[in-house]
UniProtKB/TrEMBL annotation:
It comes from Marinactinospora rubrisoli. This is VOC family protein.
Length: 100
């Protein structure tokens, strides 16, 4: 069970636009936006993208999210591609991780 995730990002504003778009199909909503982090919440996961505090560029983060149905998965995927996220493959079942 995940309590929350806090990926590091290099640009909080750009990340906010991305997360606003991709989390909406999953019921995610922005709760607040302090200077260095953005808060999002659904019924299952809390996500807090935070500004990277090192000189290194933000590193990629793999995040698995839960969706209500296949339509929400498709909407998430389409929103991610629309905002320019790197999408290595189309959504598909991953039986090694979850039954559906």
């Amino acid at each position: 069970m995940i309590g929350h995730l806090s990926p590091r990002v290099t640009d909080v504003q750009i990340s906010a636009a991305c997360y606003d778009a991709v989390l909406a199909p999953l019921g995610g909503r922005r709760l607040l936006r302090p200077r260095t982090a953005i808060g999002y919440r659904t019924d299952r996961v809390t996500l807090w993208p935070r500004s990277s505090r090192t000189s290194d560029a933000a590193r990629g983060t793999h995040v698995a999210v839960t969706a209500a149905d296949r339509a929400a998965v498709t909407a998430f995927h389409e929103a991610a591609a629309a905002v320019g996220a790197e999408v290595p493959h189309a959504p598909r079942p991953w039986p090694e991780h979850h039954d559906h």
